[in-house]
Amino acid sequence: MEPVVGIGPVSRCTVDAALTVARRTRTPLMLIPSRRQVDAAEFGGGYLGWTTQEFADHVTEHDPDGLLLLCRDHGGPWMHTAEADITEPAEALDSCVRSFAADLDAGFGLLHIDTSEGRPGTGPVPAQTAAARLVELYARCHAEARARGADVAYEIGFEPQDVSTNDPDEFKAALRLVLEGIEAAGAPRPRYVVAQTGTKVAELRNVGRFHEPRARDETLRQVSTLAATCHQEGVRLKAHNCDYLTTEETALLLRAGVDAFNVAPEYGVAETRALLRVLDELALHRAKEDFLRLAYESGKWRKWMLDPTTATDVERAVIAGHYVFRTEEGLRIREEAAGALAARGRPPLEAVLRDAVAERIESALRAVERAGGQAADRVDGQPVERTPEGTR
Q1: What angle do CA 154, 157, 162 make, to 5 degrees?
Q2: Burial class (CB in 10 A: 0-12, 13-18, 19+), 215
């Protein structure tokens, strides 16, 4: 069974929650770290405090049945802060190829090549530039994989997430052009293509067009057309930014033809809120104030804000909470809460937080079940017939 749900490991707790859910439900899942979350030692790792190899070792050790597929999310140039001072595109491409090589060495099974970003402060790159860089990176990653004898699949994306959907005709032409370039390079077709599906995260909600009831039917028609284009090309449609959707909303996307979807910041918010609840229950008021201040002062909420915004300072801190879990002060606050729980004979803090995140992951799995397993019932982007004996 192909995994359908991609889980952004916004914290170590989220990784352990994914492991727990996969074992409990016997369901394959994708773990999809961005470069800012986990990267090679050369780049200083990521905010989880793990290098690529350390992350892979942790998952492998706790996943003896191999239910979790290790995937790189947004693995393109300028996707790690260590590349912020690089000005030349060729140097940025060389840098991210070394990151991809570390993924391959660690046993990743899916690489998302995303060339939508330019160097910091310049915004998204033009579509033609993104497409050309994607084809070059794809060919170079394929060469690295072949040199290692690695069995790896690919996901491609060449534009930043937007609130609306792609124009079907423009998407079809752009996809055809990129696939022709990949074929000309002698590389296999990607497993997934990321399209705009009307899903977009901002602040503590989904602000994509799909989430607007009046626009939903039209958005779903567009998504269905995009999915058909992907399936005609023998690739699968991946939706990003599916956080904060209801179970039924996510199921609607799957029924429309989406083959897999990603969720990330929602899990960090779930863990942050669970931690704040614990601090309230234990009357650790100073620790709660310290955590909210730490998260707010990190400024990590800025990239998620609407303009204009009505978000409070507390809401901004909740948005940024998972970025500071592994800081010295963040760890101190967690240790204080863990000690207070233990003194009262309560379950361990990490178990409480893990269960809060696991519930949200299970909600995503319920959406797959509600959709009737349609996303899982496609092979190479094409529907397959189910019989009592299995798939044919």
Answers
A1: 145
A2: middle
Helices (H) and strands (E) in the chain, counts: 12, 14
Tokens 């284009």 belong to: 229
137 SS3 class:
helix
Tokens 């999915």 belong to 227
27, 31, 66, 135, 362 from 70: Cα distances, Å: 14, 5, 10, 22, 19
Element (H, E) at 321: none
pTM equals: 0.94
Q: In this predicted model, what pLDDT tens digit does every residue of 119-177 receive, in sequence order?
A: 998 999 999 999 999 999 999 999 999 999 999 999 999 888 899 999 999 999 999 99
Query: Which amino acid, residue 203?
Result: E
* Strand-pair partners of 206: 201
Comparing C-alpha atoms, which of 242, 197, 249 is closest to residue 223?
A: 197
pLDDT 10s digits, 262-315: 999 999 999 999 999 999 999 999 999 999 999 999 999 999 999 999 999 999
Host H or E run for residue 100: helix 89-106
Pick the closest to residue 264 from 354, 361, 183 (CA basis).
361
DSSP codes joined into one string, 48-97: TS-BHHHHHHHHHHH-TT--EEEEESS-STT-SGGGTT---HHHHHHHHH
